[in-house]
Design brief:
Chain lengths: 292, 411
């Protein structure tokens, strides 16, 4: 039984003609201990998928089974408690509270769990030591470098001993040296048995993952297990196909990306036509998922 | 959990001192006005009680005008505020004094006349003061000692001598013991022969400060200003203090009979002054309390406003907190705590300021306001209540924010 199991999960925004499909009947199983890298162009639904798995969002359709329990229909309070106990978030923009020092920031999830101050600070200090910030406990976040802040954020994600760590572009705002430190840290967590889901735009980082999921237009189009330490061939292909994002691409939006996306199957061609009206579907249309 | 919330909230108040102070201003004003009013009332009540205790309950005051109504048992049912405060005028006359002198069982009958202008000195007039004509038994009847010099004796009722209150000595003569100096009443010279000890503010009635009065023999006063004086009170003491109630009825009946059956005078026991005072205070308290209520309302709205701003400013923070596992209730409690801390600190500042106002009142006025512990608790309680009431809506708003939306909004 997988730790995370999404079954035909869809997420729709808006009503009627203005309906936007963020996730289109996505099914995904993640075993405990996997390090999954999620890739895909902007607007492909990566973050929505992460929010779904992280219990911040609830699916419009479909079911989500987290360690044998369906959590798709839980009430906000129960989801908050699961989030607190089972899931650690690491964000691209770090998201530490600027008015609290590093130690208090890390101890915050424990406060919401109702643990007494002395114990939670002790606990937070221990986790900070683990991420190598033992000497920065009483610094305010603004006094730290980006890499240090991100490590503090990882410490915060770890403080409740979560089963799942969700990292949404954790190195997106970091220079390459800091990125390396942060990735090594995540990698070490993976080695010690944590399940990690990481969104990234950088194909190089897939070398830390043992599975790469490629999303497009609200669907998972590729899902590949890769050996640790190797850049996924899929990611490499993507890198060749999108050498860099130009301003023109940004202006043209998703439809420009559609033109260059590697489409070979029949169903995919159909989708390309429908994608001329990008991201907007008046009716929910069952789309055959691309073959792996 | 809670302590964490309050700690955070306090540090936020501290980090935005001016903003917090302005927000709390309404609460502070409300609390100060409530505490000051109540403490003034309490002070007056205590003075009256003290006075009543000191003078004993056997001092009977006959005042002109029908100030109040009584039921069959003699309890006061209704007070006429127009006549109750200060000196009423009119319906007492020399004839009434004679009637009272004929009554049996009275130890003292001491009439008090008023000339409602201050004495003069070297051509200038003491406008704050007034002149009272009394007989020689007055100090004994009101149990007030003459601190320096002495009061006039029964044989001196025609002599132009004066005993003055403390403030007259200070304000008019600008010395402590101006014995032997002269002041003028209606152009006639009176020689100062004594200075009273300081009077409490309520010896003869509310709002009458006897420290500003000049006491002269009634006969002498009538000689110089017969047409302008008014008989404002007749003080009576019974021979037997236990017979006070009967004597009151007796006095009342005798005077009513001599007035042709019309009830146009009031006979008051000393402790009943308290009730009369209470009635005036109730009016004042209602008035000031309504101002304070409006002020608290405005203060509460100010807090609500600042909390709403705070909630929308900190949307991103709410998103973060929710992402790491805060429940809606925990978010709500956090913002409630902030509103409560704001109003609570406002309440505390209000209490401290009330003590300052109290102090200033004691120095510059004749009032002796007393701040009691229940009042402080009530004030702090009210400020907490305001915080809870007006913090709820913003806190619920914060708690209901969608975490994804909240995280997306800049931060």
């Amino acid at each position: 039984m997988p730790l995370i199991s999404l079954k035909d999960v869809s997420k729709l925004y808006g009503f009627g003609d203005a309906t936007t499909v963020a996730l289109d009947e996505v099914s995904l199983d993640v075993e405990a201990g996997e390090f999954v890298a999620v890739m895909g162009p902007s607007g492909s639904g990566k973050t929505t998928l992460m929010n779904m798995i992280g219990l911040l969002d609830r699916p419009t359709h479909g079911d989500y089974i987290l360690s044998k329990k369906s959590v798709a229909k839980l009430r906000p309070n129960q989801r908050a408690k699961l989030r607190r106990d089972r899931i650690g978030f690491v964000f691209q923009s770090f998201n530490l509270l600027p008015k609290l020092n590093v130690l208090d920031n890390v101890a915050l999830p424990l406060m919401y769990k109702g643990i007494m101050p002395v114990r939670r600070l002790k606990r937070a200090a221990a986790v900070l030591e683990r991420v190598g910030l033992a000497d920065r406990q009483y610094f305010m976040p603004r006094a730290l470098s980006g890499g240090q802040i991100q490590r503090a954020a990882i410490a915060r994600a770890l403080v409740n001993d979560p089963q799942i760590i969700i990292a949404d572009e954790p190195t997106g705002n970091l220079d390459s040296t800091s990125s390396l430190v942060v990735m090594e840290l995540l990698s070490e967590l993976h080695r010690t048995g944590n399940t990690i889901l990481m969104v990234t735009h950088n194909p190089e980082l897939t070398r830390y993952a043992d599975r790469v999921v490629y999303m497009h237009d609200g669907s998972i189009v590729h899902d590949q297990h890769t050996p640790l330490g190797e850049v996924s061939p899929l990611a490499n292909k993507a890198r060749q196909l999108f050498p860099r994002r130009t301003e023109e691409d940004d202006l043209a939006g998703v439809s420009a990306i559609m033109e260059t996306f590697p489409q070979k199957t029949e169903t995919a061609k159909k989708r390309r036509k429908s994608a001329a009206k990008p991201k907007r579907k008046t009716t929910r249309k069952a789309v055959t998922r691309a073959k792996r | 959990m809670l302590s964490g919330n309050y700690k955070t909230a306090l540090s936020r108040v501290r980090s935005a001192k001016w903003q917090s102070l302005l927000t709390m201003f309404g609460i502070i004003v409300g609390i100060v006005s409530v505490i000051t009013t109540v403490s003034l009332g309490e002070g007056i009540k205590r003075q009256v009680l003290q006075q009543a205790n000191r003078l004993g309950n056997d001092l009977i005051t006959v005042r002109p005008g029908k100030i109040l109504s009584r039921d069959k048992n003699g309890a006061i049912t209704k007070v006429n505020p127009a006549l109750a405060y200060g000196f009423g005028t009119g319906s007492l006359s020399e004839q009434d004094i004679a009637v009272l002198h004929r009554q049996k069982g009275l130890k003292h009958v001491s009439p008090v006349s008023l000339l409602s202008s201050g004495p003069g000195l070297d051509g200038s007039q003491y406008n704050e003061g007034f002149t009272l004509g009394t007989d020689a038994s007055f100090p004994e009847v009101v149990e007030q000692e003459v601190e320096f010099g002495g009061y006039f004796t029964p044989g001196e009722e025609n002599r132009q001598v004066a005993v003055i209150g403390k403030r007259v000595a200070e304000d008019l003569f600008q010395e402590n013991i101006p014995i032997g100096r002269t002041l003028t009443i209606r152009g006639q010279e009176f020689i100062v022969r004594g200075i009273f000890k300081e009077f409490g503010s309520t010896t003869l009635g509310q709002g009458v400060d006897l420290n500003k009065a000049v006491f002269v023999p009634r006969t002498a006063l009538n000689n110089v200003a017969k047409d302008a004086t008014q008989l404002v009170q007749i003080l009576v003491r019974p021979e037997d203090p236990k017979q006070t109630a009967q004597v009151m009825t007796q006095v009342n009946n005798a005077l009513t009979a001599s007035h042709g059956g019309q009830q146009d005078i009031t006979v008051l026991r000393q402790d009943e002054n308290l009730l009369v005072a209470n009635d005036m205070l109730r009016l004042l308290t209602t008035f000031v309390t309504s101002i304070a209520a409006i002020s608290l309302l405005v203060g509460g709205i100010g807090i609500m406003n600042i909390m709403l701003v705070s909630v929308s400013e900190r949307t991103h923070e709410i998103g973060i907190r929710k992402a790491i596992g805060a429940t809606n209730r925990q978010i709500r409690n956090q913002f409630m705590a902030e509103a409560v801390v704001l109003s609570f600190v406002g309440g505390i500042v209000g209490v401290v300021l009330s003590y300052l106002v109290n102090f200033i009142l004691r120095i510059y006025t004749n009032f002796q306001p007393v701040i009691t512990l229940p009042v402080i608790f009530a004030a702090v309680g009210v400020s907490l209540l305001v915080g809870i009431t007006f913090g709820t809506i913003p806190a619920i708003k914060a708690a209901r924010k969608d975490p994804i939306e909240a995280l997306r909004i800049g931060g």
